[in-house]
Design a protein that fits this description.
By secondary structure, this protein is mostly helical. It contains six helices and no strands. It has one domain.
Length: 212
C-alpha cells in the first residue's frame, strides 16, 4: 500500500477592493467639472479638468471597472467602465472634435452626448438602490446633475447648467466619502486582523511553553 500523501492546500489570494479607486477616479474630475459648470470659475478652467479626466477619470475608472468585472461585480464594473468611457469621450470631443462642430450646433452636440449618459445613469441609479446607502448617495445627485446639464445644453439655459454643476459637486462629495470609507475600513480591518493573528500566535506560544 502506498502511503497517503497530503498535498498542501492552495489558498486563494486575498483580492483588494477596487471600488475606492473607482470612486476617487470618478469624484475628482467630477468635482472640478462641477465647479466649472457652477460658474464659480471661468469656463477656460476646463482645460485643467480635461487632463485629469483623461488620466484619472478615464484610465482610473476603466482599470477599476475591469477589476470589478473580474471579481463578478456586474453593477460596479458597468458603472466604472461607463464613466471611464464618458471621460475619455469628453476629452476627445473637446480636444479633437469640438473645433469641427459648427458653432451654432455645439449646444446640440453636447446635449446629445449628455442625453446618452443621462439615460444610463438613470437605470444605474435604480440599480444602486439595491447596493449600499453610500453608493445610492452618489447616483441620485449624479442623475439629477446629468439631467440638468442635458436640459441646460439643449435649451442654452444658464441656470440649468449651474444647477447641474452644483449637483455634480454633491455627487463628487458623496463619491469621495464612499471612497474614503472603503479605504479607511480596509486598512483598519486589516490592522485589526493582523493584531488578532498576533494575539493568537502569542497565546499559542505561551501555551506551548507552559506544557513543556
Amino acid at each position: 500500500m502506498t502511503p497517503d500523501v497530503q498535498l498542501p492546500r492552495r489558498t486563494k489570494p486575498v483580492e483588494a477592493d477596487p471600488a475606492p479607486l473607482g470612486l476617487a477616479a470618478f469624484a475628482a474630475p467630477t468635482l472640478m467639472l462641477g465647479i466649472v459648470n457652477t460658474g464659480l470659475v471661468a469656463s477656460p478652467a476646463i482645460e485643467a479638468v480635461l487632463p485629469l479626466g483623461l488620466c484619472f477619470g478615464g484610465l482610473g475608472l476603466l482599470t477599476a471597472g475591469n477589476w470589478e468585472f473580474r471579481r463578478g461585480n456586474t453593477f460596479a464594473g458597468t458603472a466604472f467602465t461607463t464613466y471611464g468611457a464618458f471621460w475619455l469621450a469628453l476629452v476627445l470631443y473637446f480636444w479633437i472634435f469640438a473645433v469641427r462642430t459648427p458653432r451654432a450646433e455645439v449646444h446640440n452636440a453636447i446635449g446629445l452626448f449628455l442625453l446618452v449618459f443621462t439615460i444610463i445613469t438613470g437605470y444605474l441609479m435604480v440599480a444602486s438602490w439595491r447596493t449600499t446607502t453610500a453608493v445610492a448617495m452618489v447616483f441620485v445627485p449624479l442623475f439629477a446633475s446629468f439631467l440638468a446639464l442635458c436640459i441646460g445644453a439643449f435649451s442654452r439655459t444658464e441656470w440649468a447648467t449651474q444647477a447641474g454643476g452644483w449637483l455634480g459637486v454633491v455627487a463628487a462629495a458623496a463619491g469621495f466619502y464612499a471612497s474614503a470609507a472603503g479605504v479607511i475600513e480596509a486598512t483598519w480591518m486589516s490592522a485589526a486582523r493582523e493584531g488578532a493573528v498576533d494575539d493568537v500566535a502569542l497565546s499559542a506560544a505561551a501555551g506551548t511553553r507552559r506544557s513543556s
